[in-house]
Amino acid sequence: MTPYHYLANILDPKYKGQHLNEEEMDQGINYVLEYHPEIMCAIFKFKAQTTPLKDYLFSNNALNKAIV
User: Fold this and answer.
1) 42-50 — which CB contacts under 8 Å span 24+ positions?
2) What is the separation of C-alpha 37 from the centre of its chain, rounded to a whole number of angstroms?
3) What's residue 10's pLDDT?
4) From the first residue on, what is the mean pLDDT of each consecutive set of 10 residues in the chain (68 residues)?
5) How far is CA 25 from CA 1, 12, 21, 51, 55, in A?
6) Hey, which of 1, 10, 33, 63 would disulfide with 17, CB 3.0 to 4.6 Å?
7) Does the model's pTM come out above 0.70?
8) From CA 61, how far away is CA 2, in angstroms rounded?
9) Cβ 17 vs Cβ 28: under 8 Å
């Protein structure tokens, strides 16, 4: 897998990078730092589940309603 794949796993509300090891997490975040540093703040907010990206926005119920 590539750093891009690791980043996708980190940002997926279902997985949130839970099953990535430290090296894989680092590769994903380093990809952002190298190619898209402007979104690091949003990624930190997502990981910390702070405003505007609160955890309840990614609950199964909320995600299912968003898809419909």
Assistant:
1) 43/10, 43/11, 46/11, 47/10, 47/16, 47/17
2) 14
3) 92
4) 95 90 95 93 79 63 57
5) 12, 13, 6, 22, 20
6) 10
7) no
8) 31
9) yes
Angle at 25 between CA 29 and CA 11, to 5 degrees: 70
Q: Which two tokens stand for residue 49?
A: 């589940």
Copy the structure tokens of residue 5.
């794949």
Look at residue 15 and give its three-state secondary structure. Answer: coil
CA–CA separation, 41 vs 27, rounded Å? 17
pLDDT at 13: 86
Cβ contact 11:43 at 8 Å: yes
**Which residue in the block uniquely carries the two structure tokens 């898209």?**
36
